Amino acid sequence: MLIESALVAFGATLAGAVTSLEVQGSQFINPTTQTAFQIVGMAYQIGGSAGYDPSNNKDPLSDGEVCKRDAALMQVLGVNAIRVYNLDPNLNHDECASVFNAAGMYMIIDVNSPLSGESLNSAAPWESYYDTYLNRTFAIVEAFKSYPNTLGFFAGNEVIDSVKTGATVPPYVRAVTRDLKNYIKKNSDRSIPVGYSAADVRSVLEDSWNYFACSIEGEEDDMSRADMFALNSYSWCGDSSFTESGYDQLVAMFEGTSVPIFYSEFGCNTPSPRVFTEIPVIYGDQMTPVFSGGVVYEYAQEANNYGLADIANEGNQSVTLRSDFATLQEQYAKLDWTSIQSAAISTSNVTIPTCSKSLISGDGFNNNFTLPALPSGVQDIIDNGVSPKPTGKIISISDYSVQYTITDASGSTLEVSVKPLADDATNTPGSNDATTGNSTGTSTGSSSTASASSPAVRTVGGVVRSNV
Ligand SMILES: *[C@@H]1O[C@H](CO)[C@@H](O)[C@H](O)[C@H]1NC(C)=O
Ligand SMILES: *[C@@H]1O[C@H](CO)[C@@H](O)[C@H](O)[C@H]1NC(C)=O
Ligand SMILES: *[C@@H]1O[C@H](CO)[C@@H](O)[C@H](O)[C@H]1NC(C)=O
Ligand SMILES: *[C@@H]1O[C@H](CO)[C@@H](O)[C@H](O)[C@H]1NC(C)=O
Ligand SMILES: *[C@@H]1O[C@H](CO)[C@@H](O)[C@H](O)[C@H]1NC(C)=O
């Protein structure tokens, strides 16, 4: 008995794993709690595209100490998912994935990168759809499939951005979706959603969604159909409104969607600083029946001026929060996340449209659903797996403290550390109290309070302010 209770007590101090999400109809669902999930996401790419540097063994999830620093701050902010664009399948991501998992955050992973041969070329997609390209996308799946917090993969990002690219690219993105889903079906223990991240170009947006979300006639369980559809939207600027921003048109467009819809990027930066008044609308009654939340662009400041934090990428790696960070945190903190994240799963059945020319309305948008054939040799990779196989696994993290100096926008130094959450818990805005250090997350399991009340839980979580 003694041993058993000691084990139970010890078990309570281990960081839990988030519950892997599933797609059901037009929602992401948590199969443990049987609730619908809203993404409270953050675009995460320290150093921008230069942060992906395979020749120097560097990508945004390769440095565990940096991930601890950023996961701790995102925990305070309140996000429950990160989107990461450019990754090297051959680097070890275990520490970063485990830190984000312990912090209650999912990962949305782009399988492509801007380097040549690592994404579809939208000017000539037929030239870029070949064996080594697909092998690389499969290698990304291998590297991330075993982390429970991998929420999904993007087969493409903004490859269709104009009437011109709408004419040629869609069958290739749909083919990559098919290939990734076949790879996952054959090589992964669980089904992981695959989707597309669209540019919010209204001349091609609705057709893109219709093209990817339909099911090809006669195909049982059509593998080329997207599991989710997302858009990068910057139409809400300043203190706008549901109608002024055009969000109302998006809701009307996507109403009745057969796949989850979310913003894979949002956060217009004019005027600056930002006011983030879209937050209560994105997570409010007008949007949540159709949208599953969104990803704020972006965590780290770059030349394009969308960052929430200035980060010294070289040297001391210190972080200085910008005022936008606090503004976003305040907007999140105002909402009732318990009710937002406990919405019942929709019981109304979605109708999956059958692919046909009549679904496509734009002049010149591709309406050919005969997809490019799998390049030769690729079926072997799907059948036998990538070789050699990158691997990923959750590891135990013994020290969640942050090594680097953090300063807030008013010049105060912040003491932060990652607060590991209980099993099945996801991070929730407002739950990591900035002055008391309390952090409980939204628990979806019975052990919800074990983490918060257990004396064995590290007490270094949360934020303590001290004036400099
Ligand atoms: C496939 O991907 C793996 C992992 O990145 C790599 O080691 C291997 O060389 C690739 N094979 C081909 C044929 O591109
Ligand atoms: C870190 O380095 C940056 C620039 O390299 C400097 O501006 C900043 O003051 C340094 N911060 C600390 C805490 O040393
Ligand atoms: C949805 O589909 C299931 C399975 O076909 C059926 O049992 C259920 O009644 C349907 N629900 C609605 C609201 O139509
Ligand atoms: C549709 O695409 C397939 C595959 O690329 C091609 O063979 C076929 O000719 C196309 N059909 C039309 C009507 O363009
Ligand atoms: C923080 O946690 C302690 C101990 O569980 C509790 O007494 C206190 O009320 C909490 N404070 C806040 C602000 O939630």
From TrEMBL:
GO terms for molecular function: 1,3-beta-glucanosyltransferase activity. Residues 422-468 are annotated as: Disordered. Its EC number is 2.4.1.-. GO terms for biological process: fungal-type cell wall (1->3)-beta-D-glucan biosynthetic process; fungal-type cell wall organization. Its main location: membrane. GO terms for cellular component: fungal-type cell wall; plasma membrane; side of membrane. This is 1,3-beta-glucanosyltransferase. The lineage of its organism: Eukaryota, Fungi, Dikarya, Ascomycota, Pezizomycotina.
